[in-house]
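Entry type: protein chain
Record version: 2
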Amino acid sequence: MGRFLAALQAPGLGAIAEIKRRSPSAGDLRPDADPARIAPAYARAGAAAISVLVDERFAGSWDDLRAARAATDAPLLAKGFFSTHDDLRTAKEAGADAALLLLRDLDDVLAASLMAEAERLGLDALVEAHDAVEVDRAVALGAPVVGVNARDLTSFEIDRDVQLRLLRRIPSDRVVVAESGITSRAQGAAAELAGADAILVGSALMRAPDPAAKLRELVDRPLVKVCGLTREEDVAAAADAGADLLGFVLAPESPRAAERVLAVPDDRLSVAVWVGEAGESDADLDQVHTVEEGKVRGREATLLRDGVAVALVLDLPWGEADPGHWGRAAAADGRVVLAGGLGPENVAAAIAAVRPWAVDASSSLETSPGVKDHARVRAYVEAARA
């Protein structure tokens, strides 16, 4: 196992941060990008690995990879259109830990030969697919690391829905990378919940005033959920405040019941909240609470994506003191969404005690059931991000 592969197998969602000066689809991104400065900044910001474009179509060169290697000991991915053993030897000599192999440009015989040569050289290979046929080829070739690119390299269109479906096709014994088009924490989380071990982000970082700060923002956890939304103006306020997940209660008995899941920005995720079982909605995720006699819903719930459990929601009992709640939540396995009594005043302490995957607040952010206090919503999100 190489350093690149090992880094991507670490717990949680990893990020491969990319250095590229231009994009064929978007033109110039950061013409003055200096790999010797950006690479170590990425490493300090939490990058699992760093991708360096070495192709002139991206205004890159092998010298960029050499400069990054001299500036950081983080795992480096050489990214270009490689089709020969010489390409891989050059990548290794320039300091790469891994190399990109695009199945779009390689038949199975050549791809297998390049994978074998990479292994001989001590390089990991990121085998990239763009459609179901290429995903299945990558799996059949035995690629340990499979990348799914959301961008059509002919039209340059981004289709995240297709990418998420393709991520689900890849066996769990492979390391999976979601590539292209990720600009927000929520989009990264969507890829994570579909099976991605890491995201590869380039353009969003290169366009940012501070690429390392943007990277830190994308990998920051916990995610922040504002629930019990019933009005479009409250959805807009929560999104503007920086909430990642926007929740809509579809249990008619709830005082915060919404008629439907309202539209949310493309860079956020919607969550439909149910009791007993999930129904039909347009939400990205479903949150299904247990049934508890005498109450609108039970205290615990499961977060589902396409019917598959992806996180556990741990909620305080309503109106009851429970000093052991945070301790039990901290001991729970898997992704934890912490809820119950959270607000601007205590969310930071809850995060420090539990280290949850996400935090969830609703009633503490209201002026009346289903009507949000925009100032408290902003204060809650800011406290969770502090």
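Comment: The mean pLDDT is 94.
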